[in-house]
Each structure stands twice: as C-alpha cells, then as structure tokens.
Amino acid sequence: MSGARTPAVVRPPAERDSEITVSTSHALPPAPRVGLRTAWWTAALAVVLLLAALAPASVISDFQFFQLNRVVTFAIAIGGLNLLLGWAGTISAGHGALFGIGAYTTAILVADHGVPWPLAVLASLVVGLVVGALLGLPALRLGGMNLGLITLAIALLLPPLLTRLDWLTGGPFGKTTPRVEAPPGLPFSSPQWLFLVNLVVLAVVFWLLSNMLRGRMGRALDAAASSRVMAAAHAIPTNRITVAVFAVSAAVAALGGALFHLTTRTSTPDSFTFLLSISLIAGAVVGGSRSFVGAIIGAAFVVFVPESLGGFVDPAAAGQWQQVVYAAALLLVIYFFPRGLAGLVRQARNRLVRRSSTNARSQEEQS
Amino acid sequence: MTELWQQVLSGLGSGFIYASLALAICLVFQGTGAVNFAQGVMATASAYLAWSLVSNGMNFWLALVLVLAASFVLGALIERVFIRPVEGSSPLVMLTVTVALLIGLQAVVALIWGDDPQQLQSPFGGGSVEVFGARLTAQQLGAAAVVLVTLLLAGAFFRFTTLGLRMRAAAQNPASARLLSIDVGRMLALGWGLAATVGAVAGVIFAPTLGVSPAMMDSSLLLALAAATLGGFESRGGAVVGGLVLGVAANLASRYIPGIGSDLQLVVPFAVIFLVLLLRPQGLFGRVSSVRA
C-alpha cells in the first residue's frame, strides 16, 4: 500500500479513490472487507433459490419454510443493526421496536386500507427511514452511548403505545392480514413463495449495504468510530453521517419487520418487546457485527437456539433459560471471538487456504 | 395546593430510588467507563436475598446488614469475573457485557425465586405522618431517610477518606494512580462493590412498596439511567439531584398531564433528557471536556 507510512495525511475529498491514511497512533481498523465477490454470491443465491423453489413439500415442509422466513427477516434487521454496531460504533437498544414499527405499518396498510403487500412493505421502509432520522437527530447532540439510551426509550414505549392506540393498531389483539399467495400459475405454497421473496430482498439489501460500506461512507464511518475529533478534523461530516447511517439502519430494520409480519400474519404488541431488541443485539454480536454473513448466522442463532432448548428444560422456565443462553453466548463471544462466529469461520477458511498455498497470505489474518 | 404538595412529596419518595441507583451507575461509570445496565437487577437480587432472610424469621435490619455485605462481595466479584476481561475496551463492548449481565442475572433470579411477586413487610410499620398538610406513610418517610443517610455516607466516604480519594484517583487517571502505587484493579472492584451496596440499599428498603419480583427494578433502572444522563455521568451529586427531579417530574406528569397514565410515565424522563441535552449536552452538572485527537 503506497503511502502507508505518511503521517496523518488525507488527500482532498475531491479525489474519488482517495484512501484515508493516518499516522499509526490512530491506526484505523483495516478497510472493511465487505466486498463479497458479487458473482460468486449471486451464483450461491441462485442455487439456494432454485433448490427452495423446486423442493417438494416432503423435503422442506411449510413449517420449515416458516422458520427459514423468520431467520431471513431477522437477518435483514440484524444486518441493519450491524451498520450501527459494526461500523458507526454506536448501539441501538430499540431495533426491536423499529422492526415492530415496520411490521405494524405493513399490517395496518394491508388490513385496513387494502394496500397491496409489496407497496405496504415499501411504505414500511420509508416509515423506518423517517423514524430513524428523527431518532438520529438528537444523537447529533448526544453522541455515542446516549443514543443507546434514547433508543431504549422507544423499545420500552412501543408495546404500551401499541396497546393504547387501539383505533389504529387493534389494541392488544393486534392486526391480522390475509395470507400472501404466490402469483397464480406458480406452483409455490405461501411460505415457500415468501421465502423466495425474502431471500431476494435480503440479497439486494445486503448487496446495497456492502457497496455503501465499501466506499467512502464506510471509511468515513470507520474514521468517525475510531475518533470523532480526528474524523471531523479531516473534513468528515461526522454528525451528518451519524444521522444518515441511523436512518438507513432503521429503515432496514423496519423492512425486516414488514416481511416478518407477512410471514407471521399477525402482529401484536407483545411480539415487539425489549427482549426482541436484546435478541437482535445478541444475534449481531454472536454472528459478528462487521459481517453480513454474520447477520445470517446470528439470525439463525436467535431463531433456532431458543427452540432447541425446548426439549431440555421445563417449558414454564423456557423463557428464562433462553435469556441465560443469550447472556452466556454474548459473554463467550465477546471474550473469545470478538469478531463473532463469522470471524471464526473466516479465520478457519484462511487457515485452510494458507495450508494449501503458501503464497496466499490473507490480510484479515493479521488483524 | 395540598394535592400538588402531596404529589411532589410522593414523587420525591420514589425519586430516592432513582437517585441511589443513579449514584451506583455513576460510581461504576467513573471507575470502569461502563454504563451498567445490570445495576437494577443486581439490586433486585439483593431484595430477594433480604426477602428470603426475613421470611425465614430474621430481623429486617439484621437482614439488611447481611444483604449489604453480600451485595458488596457480589458486586466486586462481578467486576473481577465479568468486567476485568474487557477492561479498557470500547464503551460498546462494555455495554454489551452489562446487557448480557442484565438478561442473564434477571433470568437466574427468576429461576431461583420464581416469577411470582413476593411481599416484604415494611420495617416502619403501617402508620402515616402528616407533613405540612400532606400524608406520607411511615414506609415512604423511613425509606427516604435511610437512602438519604446512605447517600450522605457515600458522599462523605469519597470526600473525607483516603480510600475514597484513592478510588477517585484511580477512576480519574488510572495511569497516574498506578504510579502513586494505587492498586487500580482493586479500586475498580471496590467501586463495583460499593455501587452494588448503594443499589442494594434502595432495592431492600423500597422492596415493601415496589413488591419483590424479577422485574421490580426495570422502570427504576430506566429512570436512574435518565437521571445519570441528566446530572452528567461524571457527577455523583448531579445524578442524585437528577433522580429526585425525575421522580417529582414523572409523578406530576402522570397526575396532571392528560393521556399519560402510569403505563406511559416513562415518556417523562426521556422528554426531560431530550430537553436538557439539547440545551446542555454535558448534563446539568457535568463539565465540558475538550478533546484532543
């Protein structure tokens, strides 16, 4: 890398491909390696889609598709949360609520206003963007952890608000919408069709996000996360990118929520409690908050771990054991695998690659 | 007017819970730089411990003393075991650890003692006292007095004792403190222990009004976090004042502002924080620190 030794110099922002190089005293984390090899991933996605589309009900049941849909929609939301945890260096304790806002927006539009579901999902995205920007604005003054406190407020206020505003939200019984059917002529069951839709949305969203993070935005975020003052001194509009990234993150979470509602068909206030926000954080940390593959791993953790507990413990205490497992997983990952399970996978892969070819030195390995 | 006075006084009463939890949160924050989300549930565990002792026939005050000692040890132990491995990490990592502690400890409490709320008898009896025309129960008055004494003791400890001074030094500038042969690690553990003790006082003494349940401290924790933000995380006195102010504000709002019932009472502290932070981002009593890159 040229100029790696130059002390604290940033080329003018006008240069498109300028790399931010800084003196070693504020060494930035390595450039985000979100650059998935697009062709490879498109192929993988196509294969999964094809398999899912062709799978007869005897191989993957509708219930399994339902579970997979939960994984995919949670993964989308966790991907949004990763923007904050992994890149912006802040936390949101309220992404469960934003997820819920997305779900309710779609539910209300479809159930009460007869809006077709794709439009309703888009509306959820927009509502999430607006709410996220509104939440992000005070963050300009608060900065860092205080934002976490504000988001905590919406996580706790949403369920009672949803119950209270029954003329809009249906109160404690929530809203139920009809099943989403595949277009006539296609031989898919409803959960199967939704799975195909969700997976495509996930792929598009993650592709867009990773492009965003690979570019100047990602570097600016990294700079701001490592030192706001330094970033500001280097003409990075730290305030503006904080609000922007919060809004995008919220929009993605709301999008996940909207798709989640299509899967479950019923949204009630107690689907979106503080525990959901915590689950999303747990998923992000366990999977690895600087990785979109990690988001999927984390979502699988959030969906399947509580369920597999069901067989071992007293069902009355299942919720508590779920919390214990979340807590233990969070602590273990933080202590032993700070880059999450995705980091672990990457490390293992790198080791394999290195063993097979002595020349292949990967950069991630060093950090 | 009497009605208003009554509301202010009972607001102050619950304000003391928030004040002591907020003080505990500040102690931890100053020492380890972690916003301790588990502070509330640690107090809950203390309350359950006291309930177990009292319901087995122990005297309330003896139980309180034992529980305070146990809480101190537990707090210091939590620092040693769970916080030490990530000492000096980013606030984000710290926060995640304390959130993990929150959900884990809360579940453990529920697994040990069950979900059903328990009742702890008030040590002050069921009487009530008239204060300038407002009625306060003996429990309200007594609990406030105990917490007030605790807060004063904590203040005096930091102001007048060598150990308190050492702890302040370790919190303010660990590197220099180390050069002065202060065992910073031990000071941090002591800080956590002390915070757990202050929280435990609130948990146990207010248990008769709050009811003993795994979620008893949930809303108090939020108000305490709000109070600490309000007062500035660096200011111990500020956190206490913030707690009292929020207690009164929340009580008055849920009584006089239509549409805010007890379920939406939480709106108040956050609205107050919003306002204060827009005007004074460092909190009411915090200092603006200039930063060097």
UniProtKB/TrEMBL annotation, chain A:
The keyword NAD does not apply. One of its GO terms (cellular component) is plasma membrane. GO terms for molecular function: branched-chain amino acid transmembrane transporter activity. The keyword Membrane applies. The chain crosses the membrane at residues 39-59, 71-95, 115-137, 144-162, 193-213, 243-262, 274-304, 324-345. It comes from the Bacteria. InterPro entries: ABC_transp_permease (IPR001851), LivM-like (IPR043428). It is a multi-pass membrane protein. Residues 1-26 are annotated as: Disordered. It is found in: Cell membrane. Keywords: Cell membrane, Membrane, Transmembrane, Transmembrane helix. Pfam families: BPD_transp_2. This is Amino acid/amide ABC transporter membrane protein 2, HAAT family.
UniProtKB/TrEMBL annotation, chain B:
One of its GO terms (biological process) is amino acid transport. It comes from the Bacteria. It is found in: Cell membrane. InterPro entries: ABC_transp_permease, BCAA_transport_permease. It is a multi-pass membrane protein. The keyword Zinc does not apply. Keywords: Amino-acid transport, Cell membrane, Membrane, Transmembrane, Transmembrane helix, Transport. Belongs to the binding-protein-dependent transport system permease family. LivHM subfamily. This is Amino acid/amide ABC transporter membrane protein 1, HAAT family. It comes from Blastococcus haudaquaticus. The lineage of its organism: Bacteria, Bacillati, Actinomycetota, Actinomycetes, Geodermatophilales.
